[in-house]
Amino acid sequence: MLDLLITHASLPDGRTDMSVAVQQGRIVELTPGLLAPAHEVVDAQGLLLSPPFVDAHFHMDSTLSFGLPRVNQSGTLLEGIALWGELKPLLTQEAIVARALAYCDWAAARGLLAIRSHVDVCDPRLLAVEALLHVREQVRPYIDLQLVAFPQDGLLRSPAARENLVRALDMGVDVVGGIPHFERTMADGAESVRWLCELAAERGLRVDMHCDESDDPLSRHIESLAYETQRLGLQGRVVGSHLTSMHSMDNYYVSKLLPLMKEAGVAAIANPLINITLQGRHDSYPKRRGMTRVPELLAAGIPVAFGQDCAMDPWYSLGSGDMLEVAHMGLHVAQMTSQSAMRQCFDAVTTTPAAILGLEGYGLQPGARADFVLLHARDPIEAIRLRATRLQVWKAGKVIAATPAPVAQLQLPGRPASVSLLAAPAPQTPAASRH
């Protein structure tokens, strides 16, 4: 007897009326119309069953700290960095853990079951590192949490940052991070990329660098990152996050850069909510959007994921852990409104970041972990349009969160008493006019 059988599900790849059979926390069969005895049977009623959402870029050490010790009045990147510098001496491990766990509760409720979080290593106490290592273990039963050793104040610019970063990796942090555009000079930025990539190669680790988070078209550290990736044989293990300067570069240079990234196997992570908010601040009008060239990267065969980046912290006072909100913003900013492009935006918060993070057993196929989300939508485009309610969230075949379907009660003359906030009515063909 199966542990769980989900019937009549629609899948993100367009298949409909699918059944998903689960035994011992894994998918054992995925086929249309399967009928088999099971301890639990769920009729999806044609709604979308998706693999879990994945956030490829987040800062969990600062999440939910909005207003501490003061509010970012300008809402700018530089004031956010300065404010984080004020907050760091006041941090306690207990407070970081409490805020991170609260955010993970939000994440689980929204079907966000894998997060890659950067953690600042420039505080010599490494309080945030210790705190998030504890959180990683505590949430392991329901969230895959990867940690990136991130020298927020610059690897070369911040005293002891190199030593602290190595200590963080020794403590169990998973990924090597960096921020070359925040070094004092372009040369220092390139040197930081070289040193960090060599460290990752030596330890067999992945690399995820904040790279060229700037409106400066001459901020080109992604070129150095692609070079070092290929030189050191790190293909498929390296990501450039943000890459906002690419939005300001001339087309000729980008025509050279994209093949270099593709050849080196470097992926990209855009953070639509934050990129569109923080970039272009020095512009009057015309005003740059700031997000990297997502359609062009995808057309070049470069994987692109979307990240939440921030939620209620010194840099961003909004955010809720909703990756469909992230996809929704990315779709609009990148003008990805074709049918195929909108589905790519759904992939950018599910399958693409899962591949970038190297998640084991992710996806909807036999043998994969029975982790999935039933959405109050019928396909990925409708899910993005509605920021669809997560009706049920499963981890290893067990429900870990559930939310009622959104139904509004109406009191309108001549109209229904209630309306499901799922979809617009099917378009009606105009009746032939009568003469």
From TrEMBL:
Residue ranges occupied by any Amidohydrolase domain in the UniProt entry: 40-400
Protein name per Swiss-Prot or TrEMBL: Cytosine deaminase
Record keywords: Hydrolase, Metal-binding
GO terms under biological process: cytosine catabolic process
Coiled-coil regions listed in the entry: none
The keyword Hydrolase is annotated on this UniProt entry: yes
EC number from the UniProt entry: 3.5.4.1
Lineage, broadest ranks: Bacteria, Pseudomonadati, Pseudomonadota, Betaproteobacteria, Burkholderiales
Top-rank taxon, per record: Bacteria
Originating organism: Lampropedia cohaerens
GO MF annotations in UniProt: cytosine deaminase activity; isoguanine deaminase activity; metal ion binding
